[in-house]
Design goal:
The protein is an alpha+beta fold. Helices cover 30% and strands 29% of the residues.
């Protein structure tokens, strides 16, 4: 489904690059006088999350005035449910890395139409990485077309994680940025074969990365292998599975028992 919105992904990218300048100016102060607090215990937020969120809301809102808004750092307005399209934003995905002066964070912006992401931009300015994906038009990293992992054998699959549980010891650990969006993008760029989470998460965490990974040729579903939908009344879903198409069925089967047990807790 191509986008009916007459906005170029490059135009969105330019706006996100401006937001990146705001973020990088503050990133230079990470670990110093950067203002950081916990929204809830264990979930940090910084002054930069809010500054980037405000900037993006103003600029993207002007770009598509009738689009709704759903962001991690803005109080949810259910009026978005009456909008045929919304902006889906995480101003700083991977705030823990951001406030510690690590590079594994990103700015995530997606345009959703009728429940599906049609465009996404993911910026990791501390890594000089700018990702774009648009439905039917491919995915790119710094202008280079992306081709996702084509792995067919599940054992040995590269997973961005800190450690593997005993049940998954046949997999291979690779670098894990704090940003889940960047971990999904690693699959799009064939740096990883599999990203899976078994917890309740939010649409803004994965929107941009989902279209980038899909347009690069990866398979992206929820943790049980079901279709992802966006702009739902409750903006969450149980888990995400982003992987090479050839190992998707094996990944779902490997995770099924754990996913069913953990998803029963609700979101």
């Amino acid at each position: 489904m191509a986008s009916r919105t007459k906005v170029s992904p490059d135009t969105i990218k330019h706006i996100v690059e401006e937001a990146s300048t705001i973020a990088m100016a503050a990133f230079a102060r990470a670990g110093g006088d950067l203002q950081v607090w916990d929204k809830v215990p264990g979930e940090p937020v910084s002054e930069t999350d809010l500054a980037v969120d405000n900037f993006l809301r103003e600029r993207l809102g002007a770009l598509v005035p009738d689009a709704g808004w759903l962001s991690e750092e803005t109080a949810d307005d259910t009026a978005r449910l009456d909008c045929g399209r919304i902006w889906l934003v995480d101003p700083i995905d991977g705030t823990r890395d951001f406030v510690r002066g690590r590079t594994g964070w990103a700015i995530s912006v997606a345009l959703v139409e009728d429940g599906h992401v049609v465009m996404g931009v993911l910026a990791a300015p501390a890594r000089n990485e700018y990702w774009i994906g648009a439905r039917g038009r491919g995915a790119f990293l710094n202008g280079k077309r992306l081709k996702a992992s084509r792995r067919n054998d599940f054992p040995g699959s590269r997973v961005p994680t800190d450690t593997l549980p005993k049940a998954d010891i046949d997999l291979t650990v690779v670098e894990k940025p704090n940003s889940i969006a960047l971990r999904m993008a690693m699959v799009a760029d064939d740096r990883a074969d599999l990203l899976a989470t078994l917890r309740w998460g939010y649409e803004w965490d994965i929107g941009a990365a989902a279209i980038i990974a899909e347009e690069a040729g990866a398979r992206v579903t929820d943790a049980l292998g079901g279709e992802l939908r966006f702009n739902k009344p409750r903006a969450n879903a149980f888990g995400v599975l982003c992987c090479a198409p050839g190992i998707h069925a094996a990944a779902v089967e490997r995770l099924r028992e754990r996913a069913v047990r953990l998803s029963a807790g609700g979101g």
